[in-house]
Amino acid sequence: GYMSGQELWQFFGTFGASWGKGLVLTLCMIFIFGCLFLRLMFATNCDNTVEIVFSANHIWLKKGLNILMPLFLYAVIIVMASGIGALAEQMWGMSAKITAVLFCFLCAAAALSGAKGAAGVFTFIVPVLAIAAVGVSLLIFKLPAQEISVRGNFNQLLPNWQVGAILFAAHNIFGALGMLAPFQPMLQKGTLVRAAAIGTAVLGAIAFFELQALARVPIAAQKELPMLYLAAYLGDGWGVVYAALLFSAMSASALGAMVALKECVRKKWPHKYLSVVILAIFTAFGSILNFSGLIGVIYPLCGYAGIVLLGGIAEHSLRIFIKNENVDF
Fold it and tell me: Labelling 48: which of 94, 95, 107, 180 has CA 20 to 30 A away?
């Protein structure tokens, strides 16, 4: 969603000239809560997301998070599958729904063998895709800038730029929690602020350049994958390269989420193949919805749920501070 341009447009671009203020608010939140979460990982010496976010007193909130995580994984899969369908339709005129459904079944089948390569692919592709996104944006800069105008379809889940900024930060932090926790053993003293600052700076740079590029080619914002449109706008070669990178990143994200969700399902249905069939069917049903529509509903809802997690991070951090459990940032 982030590299496609659709997510950034819905959470920032649709608010016109206020997108800059929203982006600043988002980046401040991501930096502050990123530091707090990394600090909690170090202070608790734990790689379990639930235990890191909530202190021991919040048993029901922990149970709630254990329920929310599988739902979030399901959301990631259907959004990525729908995005791949949109990619196939935008680039080659293929049916978005059929492509998305086929991808769900292939992804479920691939999940049988685990995701040994998914993490490696994701680690390699995302930085390359980020560079490509910034590169496309910079090439678009030769065109004259226009004022970003508000698009017609108003999203009631994102009523103003303040809510949009807060929900964007909350849902991105929500999504990052599960991926960051396993790296707890790799944390080193004195690097927490630097790590959070680098991550925030990269996200901020990508968002800034993409939104500036969309201001120069406003019609791109009307597409399901705005940044893919901009890449193709520069020439067919750019479009194909960007499509390949976007497909790889979306596939790796979906596969990683599918493997994690499969383990959750197998607790209810231990049969190896039955759990995969169930996942393929349920994710296929969700993936037929259009990409921009899913982002406009699922991501804000994840943001609202993420606000509870931000509260947990703040409260747990305060408890540790009161106990004088200092951590070298």
Answer: 107
